[in-house]
Q: What sequence folds into this?
């Protein structure tokens, strides 16, 4: 056998070996199923809405002010620092008040000693008056001594009242001084973040002068100026959708419609309680947010998840799971509503669409629905 014949035989043998393998792989591919994630087409109410630009506002924000006058001794916080209620923010110089408190404490002790002396004198005076009273029916009785004894009792009682008044006055002064010493320690009235430091060590503060501005970023609401003609369509407890510029979507509930109208803009302020998604962070006071308010009655519409929609040649296509196979459907879509599209034609409520793994599907392909996370 020549060389050419040998090569032809070798090629034929290799072809015979490859054919079963290829056929086997094709059969395996035909019988394998693609694992996909799915979402159900559903019916839900939809209202016509208009966007209103709102803003995030803190329920608790304001300036922490000095309650007593004095020179600033130390400022303990910096801008951006988070503080807890009762945490020390700044201290005023209270050395003079501390000295006054010590003087008043000594004066109170002195007055208490005088009071004890007055009480002892009263006891002696009362004993003398009783002795003179007992002598009234004897020849040893002296009217002048009796009168003197009565006067001494009255004097002793007056000294007791005087000393008691002195003690009460000095205790009141001491309480005021201690309060001023305590208020020289300026503390945070609520949990929050220091957004502005408004004094430094060495400055002299009067009562009411600001020390720092705090803002609670754990108690945030949404506020929007709503056109007065649209206020009638909402009420406390009504739920709306809101969107941030970064795409974050959330629901919010109307808490209050303030009974004050801005005559320049013809708007009324509405406060919303947001339902913050789990793990959301970095929301800031005055951050812009778009709130969608109803302008008409709600209607029921069929919706499909946005991830189910694939664009092919300018058409919107979704894969529907039918008998464990992927069936291609062209659909007509309406407006977006959150993470879903309104379906005008092509789907009905209850059908199951593929939202994960649909990019690699082909019509008629076998699918297996992913379970769990």
A:
């Amino acid at each position: 056998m020549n060389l050419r014949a040998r090569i032809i035989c070798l090629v034929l043998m290799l072809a015979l070996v490859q054919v079963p393998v290829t056929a086997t792989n094709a059969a395996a591919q035909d019988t394998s199923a693609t694992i996909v994630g799915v979402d159900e087409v559903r019916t839900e109410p939809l209202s016509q809405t208009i966007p209103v630009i709102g803003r995030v506002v803190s329920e608790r924000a304001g300036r922490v002010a000095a309650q007593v006058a004095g020179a600033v001794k130390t400022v303990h916080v910096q801008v951006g620092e988070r503080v807890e209620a009762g945490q020390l923010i700044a201290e005023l110089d209270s050395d003079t008040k501390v000295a006054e408190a010590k003087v008043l404490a000594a004066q109170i002790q002195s007055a208490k000693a005088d009071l004890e002396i007055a009480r002892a004198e009263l006891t002696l005076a009362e004993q003398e008056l009783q002795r003179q009273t007992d002598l009234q029916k004897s020849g040893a009785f002296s009217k002048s001594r009796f009168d003197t004894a009565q006067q001494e009792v009255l004097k002793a009682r007056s000294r007791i009242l005087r000393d008691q008044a002195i003690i009460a006055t000095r205790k009141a002064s001491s309480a005021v001084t201690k309060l001023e010493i305590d208020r020289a320690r300026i503390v945070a009235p609520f949990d929050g973040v220091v957004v502005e430091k408004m004094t430094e060590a060495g400055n002299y503060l009067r009562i009411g002068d600001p020390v720092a501005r705090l803002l609670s970023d754990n108690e945030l609401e949404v506020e929007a100026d709503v056109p007065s003609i649209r206020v009638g369509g909402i009420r406390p407890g009504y739920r709306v959708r809101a969107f941030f510029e970064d795409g974050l979507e959330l629901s919010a509930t109307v808490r209050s419609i303030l009974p004050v109208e801005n005559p320049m803009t013809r708007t009324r302020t509405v406060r919303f309680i947001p339902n913050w998604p789990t793990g959301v962070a970095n929301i800031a006071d005055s951050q812009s947010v778009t709130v969608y308010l109803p302008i008409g009655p709600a209607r029921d519409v069929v919706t499909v998840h946005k991830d189910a929609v694939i664009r092919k040649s300018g058409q919107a296509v979704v894969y529907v799971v039918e008998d464990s196979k992927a069936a291609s459907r062209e659909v007509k879509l309406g407006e977006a509503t959150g993470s879903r599209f309104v379906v005008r034609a092509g789907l009905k409520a209850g059908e199951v669409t593929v939202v994960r793994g649909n990019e690699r599907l082909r019509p008629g392909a076998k699918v297996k629905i992913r379970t769990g996370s």
